[in-house]
Amino acid sequence: MSDVFLTVLLTLDATIRVSSPLILAAMAGLFAERSGVVDIGLEGKMLASAFAAASVAAVVGSPWAGLGVAIIVSCGLAMLHGFATITHRGDQIVSGMAINILVGGLTIILGLAWFHQGGLTPALNNESRFLSITLPYAEQLAYIPVLGPIYKELISGHNILVYAAFAVVPMVWWVVFRTRFGLRLRAVGENPTAVDTAGLSVIKLRYKALLIGGVLCGVAGAYIATAHNAQFTRDMTAGQGYIALAALIFGKWRPLTVMLACLLFGFLDALAVRLQGVVIPGIGEIPVQFIEATPYLLTVILLAGFIGRAIPPKASGMAYVKER
Amino acid sequence: MTMTDNFAIELTDIDKRFGAVHANNKVCLQVKRGNIHGIVGENGAGKSTLMSILYGFYQADAGQIDVLGQAYTFTDSHQAIAAGIGMVHQHFMLVENFTVLENVILGSEGGALLAHGLAAARKELTRLGDEYGLKVDLDATIDTLSVGLQQRVEILKALYKGAKILILDEPTGVLTPQETDELFRIFGALKQQGVTIMLITHKLREIMSITDQVSVMRAGQMVAHRDTQATSREELAELMVGRKVLLQVNKKPGNGRAPLLKVKRLSVSDNQGIERLKDVSFELRAGEVLGVAGVSGNGQTELLEALSGIVPMTSGTIEVLGFKMDAKHPLTPDRLRELGLAHVPEDRHRMGLITDFSASESALLGYHTDPKINSGIWLSNRKVEANCQALMQSFDVRPADPHLKSANFSGGNQQKLILAREMERNPEVLLIGQPTRGVDIGAIEFIHQRIIDMRDAGKAVLLVSVELDEIMSVSDRIIVLCDGEISGRIDAADADERTLGMMMANALDPIDPLQTMDDQHASSGQASSQETQA
Questions:
Q1: 3-state secondary structure of A26
Q2: Are residues B106 and A183, on separate chains, in Cβ contact within 8 Å?
Q3: Residue A130 domain flag
Q4: Searching chain A, which residue's CA lies closest to the CA of residue B81?
Q5: How far apart are CA B263 and CA B277, in angstroms?
Q6: Is some CB atom of chain A closer than 8 A to the CB atom of B158?
Q7: How close does chain B come to A193, measured CA to CA in Å?
Q8: In B, which residues are within 8 Å of A314 by CB distance?
Q9: Sign of the C-alpha dihedral computed for residues B353, B354, B355 and B360 taken in this order
Q10: What band does B508 get if pLDDT is binned at 50, 70 and 90?
C-alpha cells in the first residue's frame, strides 16, 4: 500500500476526530438559532462541560459520570442564557460573551482550588476515558485492498462519542423537518408573533431549543476533555465554539450541510497539523496560521455573498416582545 | 332559546389600561350570530385592543366575555381558538418560508409527527377550499403568494382551526379593489355557512356595503350601535370624530403650468441589484397635484427616495426646477432642499422624525443649517423652540409643547408637525408620501386642505398614497405604479376605483383608451362569470 494513500487516510481519520465536537456544537447552535436565539456561548458551554467532565471523571473514575455532569453544567449555562435573553430580553450576544468570559475564568479558578495543578485537572487513566472502539472484523478485513484500510483506519477505531456525533445529524434533521416540535421551532425563529397568535408559547419553545443545545454542547465538551484528550487544560476548546458557529452559517442552518461544513473545517485543522513544518516545493513552508484562519475567511466570504447567500432565521437575535 | 343564544359574541364592561392610556373603557358589544358586524373608529380608539382581548392576546383588567352563549376568561389565544374564534390580523401572521400547508397546521398539527397531520390537513383544506371558494396552492411558500392570497391563507387557517367567528382587522388595507371584491364575495359565502364575521376598518364605504350592523368606538368607549341600513357614512364619520366632518375635499379644478419636475426614464435598483423602478417618465407641473397610485411596494418608496436624492438612481435623468441630475451627477438631499424641493417621507417613524427627540428638534431636521437658527457653531435653543412653536401654531399640532418627546404625539400630530416643517418653508416642489396613513379623519380633512392650498398657490405636489379615495379626491392627474413601471396615466376627473384597480394590477393597456374600455368590460365579465361558478 502506498504511503500517500495511508497519509490521506490518516488525515481523514484525524478530520473525523476533530470534526466531532464541531458537529455537536453546531447542532446545538442550530437548535438555538432556528428558535431565534443567537448562541455565541457555545464556546463557553463546551469549555465548562469539558472541565466538568474531566473533573468528575478524575474524581469518580467513570467517563459516563463525567458526561452526565458535563451535560448538567452545560444545560445550566444554557438556561442562564435563556433567563437573560428570553425571560429578560437581554442582548443575546452580550449574554453569550458573558458566559464565555465567565467560564474562561471560572474553570481555571476552580481547577486551581480543587486540584492544585496550575489550572489543569488530573490526567485521566484509561478507565476514566472514552476509549476507541474497534468495530467487528476490522483486523481481518484490513487486508482487503483499499476498502479494508478505509474500514479499519477511517470507520473503525473511534470512541463512542464520535459515532454519537455523526448519528445525531440525521436525528436533528428528522426532528427539525419531520416533527411537530421542529415545525414550531422553525416557525418561532422566523415569525414568533405567528407562533404566539397560533396559541403557542414562544418562551417555552425557545427554552426547549436551548435545553437541547445544552445537552449537545455537554457531549461536545465531554468529548474534548475525556475522549479526545485525557485531562482538562485551560482554554482547551480554543475557539471551536466560534468555528461551530461559522460552520452553522456556512451550512446555512441545515443539519446535513452544517455537518459537511464541520467536516471541511475539521479537515483544514487536520491538514494544518499535518503540514506543520512541511516544506512544499515551490511554495515553501505554509504558515499554519493561514490554514487555521481559513474557516473564518470562508465564512466572511460567504457572508459577503460570494458563495450563494446565507439567510439566517428572520427573528434570530431578537427578543420577543408582544407589540402594542 | 334565550336571548343570549342569539349572540355569537357578547362583551360586557370590558376595561383595559396600558399605563396611563385607558384603551378600553367599559366597552359593551353584542354581535348576532351569522351577521357581518363592522367596528369603526379612529386610530387609537381602542378597536384593535378590544379585538386582541377577545382573541386572548391581551387580558382585560375587568369585564366579561361570552362566546356563543358561554362565558370565558381567555388567558391565551389557544383558548380563544378553542372557543371558536379566529382572527386575521392586519399584518399577516404567516411564516414566510413555510408552505401554505405548514402555516395552516402550525399550532394544531394533530400529533407529534408531521406526516399524518399534513395529509389530514390537505384533505380538510381542499374541502374548505371547495366549500367557500378559497382556492390556493397548498404547497406554495408564502413569500411567492400575492397579498390577496396570503390573506386567503389566513382565513383558511382560522377556518381550519374551527373558527365560527372570524375577526378581520383592516383586511382591505393592502388589497386592490378587485381583491377586495373577491374578499367580500368570500365573506358572503362564509355568512351563508353561518360564520359570524367581525370587520374592523376605518373605510366607511366598506362598512356601508358589506355589514349588517356597525358599532362605533371613540377614545376607548363604544359610542353607538347602528343597523347599517339605518345609518350613513356621514353619520358614522361624525360619531367617530365627535363632530361634523367633510368627507369630500373642497377644490377648484387645478391648472397645471410650467413643469417644475421632469423625470425621464428613471430606473432604480436596490442594494441586491433588483430593479425596483423601471424606465419611469413623467412631468410635474406648477399648480397641480400629481397622484401616484399603486399597491404598496410597487416602487413608490423608491420613486420618492430617488426624487429626494436619498437613494442613487441607476439610469435616467431628473430635472428639478431647472437643475439636472443623473446617475453620474447626483444632487444631495441637502442641495435639493436648498433648491426648493421638500419631502414628506412615507414612514414618519423611520425617516420623518426622530422619536426620541423633542418636538422642537424633530421640527428642525434637515433645516438645522438655516442661519436664522444656526450661528455657525451654536444652535440657539430659544430660536429652535420659537420655530417649533410657530410651526405648531400654523398646523394646529396638539399639544403645542415644543419640549415634548416626538414619540409622545399621536400619529396625526406627528404627521402635522412634519408637514408643517416641510410646507412652511414654501417649497416649489413638494413630494409627499402617505400623508394620512394612521391619521384620524379630522386631521385628514385638514391635511388635504393644506395640500390643495399649496397647489392653488402655484406649487407642484407629488402625492404618493395607497388610499385610492385620497388619490382621487386630492389629485389632478394620476399615474399608477405596478411592479416599478408606470402601468397607467389618467386624469383624476376620469378615474374611478375600478379603472385604477385594473391599472394597479397592470391589467389595462394604458396607451389605447378604446382597448382600455374593452379590456375592462372583458375582465369584469370574467369576474362575474367566476362568481356564478362559485
A1: helix
A2: yes
A3: no
A4: A199
A5: 12
A6: no
A7: 7
A8: 96
A9: negative
A10: low
Condensed to tens digits (0 to 9), the pLDDT of residues B302-337 reads 999 999 999 999 999 999 999 999 999 999 999 999
User: Residue A243: its pLDDT value, please?
Assistant: 92
Chain A residues whose CB is inside 8 A of the B94 CB are: 191, 194
CA dist B79 and B161 (Å) reads: 12
For B132-191, how does the pLDDT look when each residue is reduced to its tens digit (9 = 90+)? Answer: 888 899 999 998 888 889 999 999 999 999 999 999 988 887 787 888 888 999 999 999
Chain position carrying cell 415569525: A191
Q: Is B89 on the interface with A (CB under 8 A)?
A: yes
Examine residue A159 and state whether it is found in any structural domain, yes or no: yes
Task: Provide the Cα torsion A118, A120, A125, A128; round to 10°.
Answer: 140
Q: How confident is the model at residue B247 (pLDDT cuts 50, 70, 90)?
A: low
Does A196 reside within a domain?
yes
Q: Which three cell numbers stand for residue B152?
A: 386567503
Phi, psi of A154 (to 5 degrees): -90, -45
Query: B-chain residues within 8 Å CB-CB of A253?
Result: none
Per-residue pLDDT tens for B72-99? 999 888 899 999 999 998 888 999 999 9
Residue B246's pLDDT band, with cuts at 50, 70 and 90, is low
- Contact between chains at B97 and A180 (C-beta distance less than 8 A): no
Phi first, then psi: what are they for B261, rounded to 5°? -135, 120
Nearest by CB to A197, from B87, B105, B108: name it. Answer: B87
Residue B101: band (very low, low, confident or very high) from pLDDT cuts 50, 70, 90: very high
User: ∠ at Cα B440 (B436, B445), nearest 5°?
Assistant: 70
Find the range with the poorest average confidence among A296-310, B231-245, B351-365, B420-434: A296-310
Gap between the Cα atoms of A278 and A269, Å rounded: 15
Q: What strands lie across the sheet with B429-433, from one edge to the other?
A: B341-344, B429-433, B460-464, B288-293, B477-482, B485-491
What is the band of B350 on the pLDDT scale with cuts at 50, 70, 90?
Answer: confident
Of the candidates B96, B97, B106, the beta carbon closest to that of A198 is on B106
Report the CATH number that the domain containing residue A76 is assigned in CATH: 1.10.3470
Q: From the CA of B114, how many Å to the nearest CA of chain A?
A: 5
Q: What pLDDT is stored for residue B515 in this prediction? A: 39
Q: What is the pLDDT of residue B373?
A: 79
Percent of residues, chain B, with pLDDT higher than 90:
51
Distance CA B406, CA A235 (A): 49
Whose cell is 399608477? That residue is: B480
The string of pLDDT tens digits covering residues B424-443 is: 889 999 999 999 887 777 78
Number of domains in chain A: 1
B149 near B96, Cβ under 8 Å?
A: no
Beta pairing partners, B374: B379
Domain boundaries, position A284 = 2-123+139-303
- Which among B18, B79, B93 is the nearest to A197, CB-wise? B93
pLDDT higher at A31 or B401: A31
* Complex ipTM: 0.88
Q: Which residues contact B435 (CB under 8 A, 6 or more apart)?
A: B344, B415, B419, B447, B448, B451, B463, B465, B470
Please check whether residue A324 touches B, CB under 8 A: yes
Is residue A92 domain-resident? yes
Count of beta carbons in the 10 Å neighbourhood of residue B450: 16
> B42: which residues sit within 8 A by CB, 6+ positions away?
B202, B218, B240, B241, B440, B441, B442
pTM for this predicted structure: 0.78
Q: Say yes or no: A195 contacts chain B, CB-CB below 8 A.
A: yes
Q: What is the distance between the alpha carbons of residues A147 and A152, in angstroms, rounded to a whole number?
A: 9
Nearest to B207 by CA among B88, B30, B34, B38: B38
> By the 8 A CB rule, do B360 and B388 touch?
yes
Contact B101, B153 (CB under 8 A): no
Greater model confidence, A64 or A134: A64
